[in-house]
Design brief:
The protein is an all-alpha fold and about 90 residues long. The chain is about 75% helix and about 0% strand. About 10% of the residues are buried. The structure holds zinc ion.
Length: about 90
């Protein structure tokens, strides 16, 4: 099976609710070290981020941001991964 695209892995790691897709990716991760490393890297980055920015501060801020835009996973991901993590 071909590797899922990076954004699919990121969405999986961020806990996207689409269960069927998550299942497929989970199965893939069991057999693919490359994707496993990628997802682990995302987890590490998120943990670091949350250590610096406690959740009770970040979440209301994040929700306000999401409110302002479309309520889509894409915007949420962009906010988390590509904007907020550039220190
Ligand atoms: Zn893979």
């Amino acid at each position: 099976m071909a590797c899922p695209r990076k954004f699919e892995l990121a969405r999986y790691e961020a806990g996207d609710p689409e269960a069927s897709e998550s299942e497929r990716i989970r199965e893939h991760l069991e057999g693919c070290q490359v994707c496993r490393c990628f997802v682990r890297g995302l987890e590490r980055r998120r943990r670091k981020f949350l250590e610096r920015h406690p959740v009770d501060q970040v979440v209301p801020e994040l929700e306000a941001e999401v409110e302002r835009r479309e309520r889509s996973w894409l915007w949420r991901l962009r906010t988390w991964w590509w904007t907020r993590w550039r220190f």
